[in-house]
Specification:
There is one protein chain. With about 100 residues, the chain is mainly α. It has one domain. The protein is about 80% helix and about 0% strand. The protein contains six helices and no strands. The radius of gyration is 13 Å and the shape is globular. The two termini are about 25 Å apart.
Length: about 100
Amino acid sequence: MNTVAFWIESNLSNVEQLINKYDQYADQGHDDFAEMYREDRDDFKKAVALFRQSDAEALSQHVDYMDTSPREELVVAFAKDLGTQFIELTLGYELRS
């Protein structure tokens, strides 16, 4: 897969599952928590949009500014979809098994 195809065509099924999980949390939560989950879900969606735009720098900055727990979940989901090398080189995180 060439570089352009990587950004556009890569399967992000684990990231999509994370988005769906936070949608469910928002639907089941009380008003305060529901809003928090929606904000986290929107951060995940923005990360996907930045990824699809091949904007590695903006993606990395966006992920860095996210709240800790959802950021960690997103990094793990990206690692499952794209591999740990992508996480290390693009986002600057090292995952240990």
